[in-house]
Structures are given as structure tokens and as C-alpha cells.
Amino acid sequence: MKKSALFIVDVQNDFLPGGALAVPSGDRVIDPINRLQERFEMILASKDWHPAKTVHFDRWPVHCVRGTEGARFPSALKIDKIKQVFLKGTGESDDGYSAFEATNEDLEAYLKIHGIERLYITGLATDYCVKATALDAAAAGFETFIVRDAVRAVNLNPGDETKAMEIMQRAGVKIILSKDLNH
User: How far apart are CA 146 and CA 149, in angstroms?
Assistant: First the structure.
């Protein structure tokens, strides 16, 4: 049987309702992610971990500045089983959308060292960091799944989430519901 990992993308306070860059209904991913964690031995996560000044903030409101409350995981998210957190967007000149751009640890190498072949991706936001992480995972040869009921989109433009899902599916990413997860 292929070894699997659950990956939690950027479920941070600033992306939840009331946060600096709130994803609509972003808090609704927490319960499904917490339930999914019971089904995995390997649980990994990413965080935006921006410096106070970065080109990233030319496009986006200031969010997830390292060490701030906005950059922390929300208290409702279970974090005790997370084996490694991959920090991204850490430089003044990088956006850090994909967890494969993490600067504290090489995600692809980490997954390969631990024998991971399947990656089940959850988190925020479907049309940005989730999409970038899933595309990089598929390109690196991992069997990649988006858990549909455990992701939410920013949808700056109507239809962005639908377009993101289509792009990921064309790249070989499978879209599933948590109830259909069979790893």
C-alpha cells in the first residue's frame, strides 16, 4: 500500500474570518481537517511566514507576518500530530505560494525520505496556495488529492475556484471528499 500524508496548507489566523486576508468561510475547513488527522500517521503543514516588508504585500494586504498572532495556527486546529511545518514566503522578494518553496525544509526531499507517495491536501486558499502546492506535488510525481470539503477559495474574481480545480485536474490532481478518502 502506498504511504500517504495529510498536508494542511496555511490554516492561519489571518486567513480566517476577521483576519487580515480572510478567506470566505475559511474557518469551515478546521473541523474536516481535524477529523481527517485521525486517519493519518504523517501530518504536515505549511505556513505563510512573511517578513514585515515584502513585495508580496504590493499585491496583498499585510498578513501572516512571522511571529504575529495572524501567522499562528488557530486554537481550534489540532496541531499536536503535525510532524513538520514548512515555512514559505519568508524573503522580501518571494511570494511563497507553494509549500514546495519552503525555506526551512525541502518538502519534496522530506516526503521522499519518509516514503510518501500520496499527498492529501487541505487548507487555504484553493485558488492560490492550495493550487500551487498541489501542482508542484503532482509535477514532482506524488499522487495528489485535494480534499474538496477541507479547502476554501479566496475567489477574488468569480469562478477562480472553479478554474483552479480545473487546472489541478488537468495536471492529474484528483478531487475527492473526505468521506470518500480511502488511503
Answer: 9
